[in-house]
Amino acid sequence: MQNTSRYILTIRSAIFVVAAFFTPVIHAQFATGFETSTYTAGSTIIGITEPTASAKWEDGFNNSSSAVIIASIANPYSGSQHLRITNDASTARSATLNLGSSFFDTTAGAGDITIAFAFAVGADVSAGTGGQAQFYLGTKNTDFANPYWFGLLYNDGKIDLRVNGSTGISSAAFTIGQYTDFSALGGYVRCEIVIDPTTQKYKSVKLFGTLADADLTSIVQSSASGGTIPHIAAPSGAIPNYFSVITGSNDTLTLDVDAISISQTSIPEPASSAVLFAVLATSGMFFLRHSRTRVRS
Fold this sequence. Notes:
By secondary structure, the protein is an alpha+beta fold. The chain has two domains: 1-24 and 268-297; 28-266, Sandwich (Jelly Rolls). It contains four helices and 16 strands. The longest helix is centred in the C-terminal third of the chain and has 27 residues, at 270-296. The two termini are 13 Å apart. Residues 14-21, 271-288 and 291-297 have low confidence and may be disordered.
């Protein structure tokens, strides 16, 4: 009985090893809620080092607008603080964080990239000025001829996802819903987007709000772009890794942003997986052999 227990324990240990091995491993992660451990309410975030990215927030347009790009306690999505950008149509505003050229693994078979954040467009938003709130991961500027991992805009009440244009040298807007279908102005809409960096396509697109949630993946993938991310003319790995929150130069609005998370997971290589399965199988054979020996004796 003691031998049997020992071999059962061996099998269980092997199972735990395999299970742990197949658990996705985080290759890269940036996550912030602009909380008090790093950010001070009422003060600008520009020049503050985000610990999970080891980089400083920049004023993307260098127009001295940092006084209106602040950590705030007025309307958090979670926790006690959030990012607030206020625009009075005097100039474009931008909070930009450079995640670095090596933040993602873009080699063949690399794990999925997941981008999640919550944003709230205030009721003071200007009508008809277009692209009032913009979010990008990729090139630092808003030139749609440059490559991006993703782009999402609040555009005159619509939520537009940027996809690859028909010519392949620019991106196009693809409307995935109306903002007020998900939340009233001033309320948060949360975006969760998954990208396959190898195929350079949107793998999952979901929106969550106080009024409704929606899985928009099939709609995006059935678009004319086939769900391809914006402008992929750049070779694999050449897409920059700037995360930017932007309001336009002719826009009036209060934009709140919170619970930002950008990560990439990796899975084990098939060859390594085969080795672990062999370990498990060998443990099982030992158990069966010793069990039969006990029966014969």
